[in-house]
Every structure is written in structure tokens, then in C-alpha cells.
Amino acid sequence: MNSNWNTFQLYPNEDIWLDCQATEIKQAEAATNLQTNQTARHYAYINHLCLHGFLRWLKENWELDSSYIVPSARELASIWELVNGTAITIGERRLVLIPHDAVDTAEFSVPQEWVDIPNFVASYYLPVQINLEQNWLRFWGYITHKTLKEKGVYDPIYRTYSVKSHDLIPDLDIILLAREICGSETANIPSLPLLPSTTAASLIDKLSQPSPYSPRLDIPFTQWGALLANDEWREQIYLNRTATTAKKMLVNLHHWLKNDFTESMKAGWCSVSEFFTTEPKLVTVRNTAHIKQAKLLNLQLQIKEQAVILLVALTPEADGRVGVLVQAHPYGSEKQLPAFLTLALLSDSSQQLYAVTSRERDSYIQLPHFHCEKGTNFYIKIAIADVSFVEEFAIDDDN
Hints:
- This protein folds into two domains: 227 residues, no CATH class; 145 residues, Immunoglobulin-like.
- Strands 1, 2, 3, 4, 6, 7 and 8 form a seven-stranded mixed beta sheet that branches.
- It is α+β, with helices and mostly antiparallel strands and 399 residues long.
- The longest helix is centred in the N-terminal third of the chain and has 24 residues.
- Helix 1 runs antiparallel to helix 2.
- It is globular.
- The termini are far apart.
- This is DUF1822 family protein.
- InterPro entries: DUF1822.
């Protein structure tokens, strides 16, 4: 089994060490924009890195007899909003990856959702240690659902099942043979009680309220599990929580004019050079210098996960106004935007002022160059199908 981290002699040789690629890190950062609180954003970040690192390893090391199935970006966002972990289906095998960034790997804990919700249950559970400073992943074994239920210690406070590291099977390649040499890898678990629709509606309303953490411990597990087991109910909780916190951090462009990007960095904005090796062309009335920032937005498309870059460029005007140019670009290896992507300018009352929609094979789209007085608020919206992002801006001298 190949490993890029053979220098780590303290760990068993069966361990898999993978580096986190730069494109995967950028996409993971974009994935955090789909969550409503810091805990969920952390789940999204580490799970995205874990998932795509593992898929890379699968392609290089396993000759799969059938294609793997990964939940859509929308489904992943609804799960990561509420619980840590990612499920992958490979043929008849279902695996759940559980990443963590703790240094101590003497114990492996799995959230109860993945163990006791029938349609969440997997045959195998893989712990993944992730180092966010050095950007590496360590896959250090797996355990079956049956063993987890038999040997796992249940914590009723945090609702987890935990086993010692020595209970893990270290060689992942055994999973390929497990169906042939072993019996059933899953234990029998009882069905969850059915929730009346009125009870579900009341619980969804309660769990949809903003919080700095997942509401997974706020109601009894039998109710919580029944809600998560229903795809529509789970997504409704996620959409409601997202809508409640949909007003993202307002970006004051006056700070950009003073080359102060501290606050906007917290909202995901960064230097254009982070995304472009060659500066994009900025077509305006006059060829003047621009102050530019860009942000990665991860589209939740059912057919394909794809990100786009939102670019905003400012030009101070002699009369005190600010010229604004907004573009949308494809990200990474993509050369073209998806067709029918709409880029729109909205007023502070959410009235659409301008809009442009991508066609087949557009390499970027751009709103007409516009001017703003100081004290102006406006919104930029990117939308495709039923997916949309809204970014709020102000030009306000708050000093």
C-alpha cells in the first residue's frame, strides 16, 4: 500500500498518508460557505478534504468493479450542517468516513446517527486523522458496524459510540475481500418510531432556529433520528437554518479603498491572485487601476459539483463615487461557466437592476460597469437552477 508519509515511523505501515491538494483546500473553503455556524463550517471543511482525498486514493489503488456513489453537494451540506461524517457507496459496500483533527488517536468515536439510523448505517467506518496546519490526512483502519455495536461504548451525553484503536482493522484492502470471507458486517438495529407530521413540523421549526452548534442534542434521539432519516425533513431543517442566517457578513467596500481586507477575509474574500495565474481582463469605460478581490462559491448542482469565482473590482472616481465591476469566472480546471448561470445586481430593497446569464461555452460573464454614491448598499446574486448565493455590499465611511 502506497504512502507519501513513510517518514512517520511511529505509526503502522498499513496507515495511509495523503497530502491535501491545493485545489481541494480551495473547494473545501468554498464548501464552508454553505453552512450556518462555525461547527458546521468545520465539519464541511474537514469532511470535504477527507472525502476528496479518499476518492483520489480509491482511484489510484482500488480496481473498483462498479462506480462509487457520493451524495450530492446539497445533501452533503444538509448532513454537515447537523452531524460529522460522510457516506460513500462502492458497489454493495457502504463506508462512512469520520474525520477529526485531534492529535490523540487512541480512541475512535462515531456519532450515533451513523450507527442507529437504519438508512444511515454502513458496513464499515473509517477514522481519518487530519492535520490542518500541515495539510495531510491519515487513514488508520476501519471497523464494522457489527463490531462497533458489540464493542463500542455508548456515551449518552454526546451520543457517540467509541472503541479503542486496537479494535480497528488496520489494512483497508481487506474491505475488498470482507464480503467473501465474512458474514454480515452490520448488526440488527430497531426501526425508529414514526413521527406524526404535526410533531415533525413543530420539531423542524424548533431546530431551524440559529445556533452556534448543531441542534443534534436538543431533542431525544428517537425524534432526532426520525427527522434525519427523512430526506425532506432533514433538508427542510437545513434550508430553514440557511434562510435564517442567509444575510451573510456585509462587506464594506470603503475598507477595500483603504487596502483593508481584514473583515472581508472573514467572509471568504481574498486576493485575485489566489485563483488566477493571469489577471482577468476588466472591461470598463476607462482603463484605470482597480482594487480587486475574489470569492469562491460552491454550486450545489445535482449533476456535478462545480465552483465559480465571484470577482469584484473597484475604481475610485474623481467626484467621490466608486465604480464597481462584477464578474463570474469558472474555477480550477474548468474553462467554461455552466450554461444558464445568472449574475445579477440587486438594490438594497432586493429589486433586480441588471442581470446577465451565461451561454454555452462562456469563459466568464460580467455585469455592466456601474457607479455608487457613498452610503449605498447593494447585493450581488449568483443563481443557477434552484441554487443561489447573495452577497451584500456597502460603501460607507464608518470612521
